[in-house]
Amino acid sequence: MRLVVVSAGLSVPSSTRLLADRLAAAVGRQAEVELEVVELRDLAVEIAHNFTNGFPGRKLAAALAAVTGADGLIAVTPVFTASYSGLFKSFFDVLDMDALAGKPVLIAATGGTARHSLVLEHALRPMFAYLRAVVVPTGVYAASEDWGAEGLEGRVERAAGELAALMRGLSAAAPVRDDLDVVPFAERLAALRSAG
Questions:
Q1: What is the pTM of this model?
Q2: Is residue 158 over pLDDT 50?
Q3: What's the domain range around 161?
Q4: Could you tell me where the DSSP H helices lie in the chain?
Q5: For the NADPH-dependent FMN reductase-like domain, which residue ranges apply (predicted)?
Q6: CATH at residue 71
């Protein structure tokens, strides 16, 4: 299975890339994947040119093809002005509208304070829902104080497990129980009417 990681970190080293790498490693422990990382920092000029001339450069075209052909996607952005970065949004704006339809996506973000953690729910999840991706239930946010603290690794492992399950085509739901009796609705309704 092909797993593509899109990282919108701007600095080197980058906490955004660090979180992306941890998520990818966690997915790799739960499923056999072929990994490709797309660093948006390296594509910034080509993304801007794509907006003005309508054509992706060579590196951007390869990145867009990788995302389109992936079996699963990890998308990680730093928080800028209480939302995803402009570079992150611009990349997904130049992606073909149908490229993520039905594709499993794990969303994640990094920021300086835990107060921005809702960026996952008010910015990233709606954007990927609009693109018709299947976003895993657990998003991962890492504030500065989360690095090395208890809790981050558990969220990383849970989200990675959900993505790996979707990539394998399995339901992330609980196993099917075979000890339940299924009663047709009409039969149940008739029984309720006769009892009343």
A1: 0.84
A2: yes
A3: 2-195
A4: 15-30, 44-53, 58-69, 86-94, 119, 125-130, 152-167, 185-195
A5: 1-147
A6: 3.40.50.360
